[in-house]
């Protein structure tokens, strides 16, 4: 079956512009996570969705970052007024609900802010 | 504190050598889950294994084996007879089960280079 998909795969934007990153999780996965991975670094948790609600937004680095999920499926991560330090790979993962389930990751969106 | 430490930043081995990737975790929970993921050069993380805190039995899958020891809070990963295709970044992750906790806590990863 289809895995997690993310779009765009690459995004180059000018400092100060807004960007939207999209994630399509695996059908039936109610849990959805966003992570940020800077070059050579580990995974930094950003936000967790359970259905359409986000019980944990603690990883969002600033109020320029927001995310939503609609229909218990597609999620969009929006970064407003992008800064150069926002350059990273943004990964989305989905899983079945519950603590024991592994996450399935998308290929990521590589964001470059110039 | 909930934390995962992968002290080995990068390891290089020659093909056919055995290699062990270390993972040490910290958690207050008595019930938790541990995971290993592989991130090949293509970039997409791939799930390798899950282990719950009540199951300390070691697991072997082909050339891969995992050693879980609660006494030392470690969940180490061994690749036997390594191959060039094993070259990747490997992440260890912890999923606590404290009510209200939703995060998977990842280590910083170990980059494995297998040289032909």
Please characterize this protein's 3D structure:
The complex is a heterodimer of chains A (114) and B (116). Chain A contains no helices and eleven strands. Chain A has strands at 5-7, 10-13, 19-24, 31-37, 44-50, 53-56, 65-69, 75-79, 88-95, 104-105, 109-113. In chain A, the strands form two sheets. In chain A, strands 2, 4, 5, 6, 9, 10 and 11 form a seven-stranded mixed β-sheet that branches. Chain A is globular, with a radius of gyration of 13 Å. The N and C termini of chain A lie far apart (37 Å). With 116 residues, chain B is mainly beta. Chain B has strands spanning 3-5, 10-14, 19-21, 24-26, 32-39, 46-52, 59-61, 64-69, 74-79, 88-96, 105-106, 110-115. In chain B, strands 2, 5, 6, 10, 11 and 12 form a six-stranded mixed β-sheet that branches. A four-stranded antiparallel β-sheet of chain B has the order 3-9-8-7, with no helix packed on it. In chain B, strands 1-4 form a two-stranded antiparallel sheet. Chain B is 0% helix and 53% strand. Chain A binds chain B through residues 33, 35, 41-43, 45, 48, 50, 55-56, 59, 89, 91, 93, 99-100, 102-108, and chain B through 33, 35, 37, 42-47, 50, 52, 91, 95-97, 100, 102-109.
Question: Which short descriptors sum up this protein?
Answer:
heterodimer; A: 114 residues; mainly beta; 7-stranded mixed β-sheet; 4-stranded antiparallel β-sheet; B: 116 residues; 6-stranded mixed β-sheet; 53% strand; globular
Ordered list of secondary-structure elements with their pairings:
The complex is a heterodimer of chains A (114) and B (116).
Chain A lengths: L4 E3 L2 E4 L5 E6 L6 E7 L6 E7 L2 E4 L8 E5 L5 E5 L8 E8 L8 E2 L3 E5 L1
Parallel strand pairs in A: 2-11
Antiparallel strand pairs in A: 1-3, 3-8, 4-5, 4-9, 5-6, 7-8, 9-10, 9-11
Chain B lengths: L2 E3 L4 E5 L4 E3 L2 E3 L5 E8 L6 E7 L6 E3 L2 E6 L4 E6 L8 E9 L8 E2 L3 E6 L1
Parallel strand pairs in B: 2-12
Antiparallel strand pairs in B: 1-4, 3-9, 5-6, 5-10, 7-8, 8-9, 10-11, 10-12
